[in-house]
Design a protein that fits this description.
- The chain has 292 residues and is an alpha+beta fold.
- The protein folds into two domains: 1-108, no CATH class; 139-292, no CATH class.
- 47% of the residues lie in helices and 17% in strands.
- It contains ten helices and six strands.
- Strands 1, 2, 3 and 4 form a four-stranded antiparallel beta sheet that branches. Strands 5-6 form a two-stranded antiparallel ribbon.
- A hairpin with a 3-residue loop joins β2 (15-19) and β3 (23-36).
- α5 packs parallel to α9, α6 (185-191) packs across α8 (206-221) and α9 (232-253) runs antiparallel to α10.
Length: 292
């Protein structure tokens, strides 16, 4: 009688993400098969990273940070995860191996995020080269941009105006760091015009949309209440479009080819517009006699 069991892990062929002189990172897809007494049979798919540091001792927290940054890259292009992290370390001392584990938590992954890339049909290992991954891991500016841009994803509740200002701030920072240090916001936002043209539906006038982004930024920053600005659901989606523009800009910066980016934005354009129209049709308010 089989009371319970566990087949060995069955990893597929590893993919080399980083292969430098002192650090090697391999990526695995695998599955775990288990059964229980009450004929419950479970197949779990999982992904894990194998990191080897060569040539001397290294702080284990640096290894954890390296893994976290690769995981952030997964999240950056649209993947999410509900599971907690498990870090298994193997220390080699001659022929002796010492094992120990650290258990993380899933606070840094939000599975309910709105996915604007077609991630279930996206093989990011074909999309991103080892050079791109290395650039992502060790460029501190990319890490700052990621944390600033996705900070709102990790909050249970965030205000639409703050979300919009957050996205605009990251866009300005990206342009300042990588394009032109001194420039007006009008020039900064218009620099990204080609990407907005790829993402926005044909019925939208691009010039008016970019001007409205600028006016909304000024309106919120100066506590004004002008009429010709984004509000409500339109403010949310304006923030979302800016976020996608930044994500694509960073992907291009770390070495992703334009034709690969285009394959991502084609899905985003139709998917987001469909979601916007659906939510716009559901948007309604009751007239109030007490509040303006």
């Amino acid at each position: 009688m089989i009371l319970g069991g566990n087949h060995k892990e069955l990893p597929l062929k590893p993919v080399k993400l980083v292969n430098s002189s002192n650090i090697k990172v391999n990526y695995y897809n695998g599955k775990r098969i288990s059964w229980e007494r009450k004929l419950k049979y479970t197949v779990t798919q999982y992904k894990y990273l194998n990191v080897k540091h060569l040539g001397g001792a290294i702080n284990i927290w640096d290894l954890c940070r390296l893994l976290d940054r690769i995981k952030d890259l997964f999240y950056f292009i649209g993947f999410s995860d509900e599971g907690s992290d498990i870090y298994t370390f193997v220390y080699y001392n001659g022929r002796i191996k010492k094992y120990f584990e650290l258990f993380g938590w899933n606070y840094n992954i939000k599975p309910s995020r709105f996915t604007y890339f077609k991630t279930y049909n996206l093989n990011f290992l074909e999309l991103i080269s080892p050079n791109s991954i290395y650039e992502w891991i060790f460029n501190e500016e990319y890490q700052k941009l990621f944390k600033l841009l996705f900070e709102k994803h990790f909050l249970k509740i965030h205000h639409r105006e703050l979300s919009f200002i957050n996205s605009v701030y990251v866009l300005e920072r990206f342009h300042r760091k990588f394009i032109a240090e001194k420039s007006s916001f009008d020039k900064r936002i218009k620099y990204f015009r080609p990407l907005f043209e790829q993402l926005l539906p044909e019925r939208i006038d691009i010039n008016q949309y970019l001007n409205k982004i600028e006016q909304t930024r000024h309106n919120i920053s100066h506590f004004e209440d002008k009429s010709n600005v984004f509000k409500g659901i339109d403010l949310y989606y304006a923030s979302l479009y800016i976020e996608i523009v930044i994500v694509i800009s960073i992907l291009e910066k770390i070495g992703i080819k334009s034709e690969q980016i285009l394959s991502l934005t084609t899905f985003s354009k139709e998917h987001i517009d469909g979601m916007y129209l659906h939510n716009k049709n559901l948007e309604y308010t009751f007239p109030s006699e007490m509040f303006k």
